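Checklist before submission:
- one chain only
- standard amino acids only
- sequence pasted in full

Submission:
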Amino acid sequence: MPPSGDTRVIGALGARQRNKRRKKSHHSGHTRLELDSHADTSAFGRNSRFIYDTGQTVTVEGFNQRSMALNEVKIGTVAVAYDCPTTFKTYILFHHQSLFIPSLDIHLVNPFQLRAHGIIINEIPLIHIDPNHRQPDCHSILVDDPKLQIPLSLRGTMSGFTTRIPTTEEIEDREQMNCFHVHMTSEAPWEPHDKTHRKLEASLRADISSD
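Returned file contents:
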């Protein structure tokens, strides 16, 4: 359980203004999901479903002190739907241990949190990859079970893809007759400030540097 007074950081909090395209997408039930390494915990807003409340809350701040902090932000499981344009199948993406901020006009996903659950994220855009090394799974999110590839697109310099709000029937389709359920993050408590991450990374860097 997060300690009392725990604070999470979202780099885009208060920094991105809604534009006409985003407002229009909200009315259609669609919202863009983007990778954001400045968000130390994945956060979801409009057109997502908050399906499980852990009962825990945190304070969320922006990357600078001028951004207004949000208090009592809920932590839980949030679901969004991804309609694959290649397979024409629907995937319900469950993001456990995520922040639910209804005022967000875009979903912000922390790549580290997904990778910690075994999700592969190839976030280098195709335009930055040597033509001889470009592969179909480049600039994509890859899931092993069930098999899923989510190609990423660019909006400005931000990588992401379009999601929509899932229906109640899709979320409750536990037999997965009409859609696939995909767990993108672990249900275990997420501790972005855990010093173990830094210590292990430093240890591994020392090991490869000594070779």
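Reviewer check: The chain has one domain: 7-210.
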